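Memo to structure team: turn this sequence into structure tokens by end of day. - J.P.
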Amino acid sequence: MSSSSDETNRQSRLSFRKFGEHQLRREFKDIAMEKCRHPEMQEFAECAEQQGLLVIFNCRKYHKAVQECMAYHNSNAAFEEYKQKQQSKQN
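Reply from structure team:
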């Protein structure tokens, strides 16, 4: 059986470091969403509200703007920089 493998996987999921990094990632994503909220998300939300089921077709440019904004502000490189800043604050 693979019980030792399962136990190793469980330990890694529960480790404090992984939990801490997960929390940092969530905070970072919230910050990125806040940066993209205006005007990108606002415009997309208004378009989606007006278009209803046609949102997929008629709001592409707004959706693309949200995706680009999030890709910029929520990138792995930006996260690593944020993580370094947070770690230096703790030390």
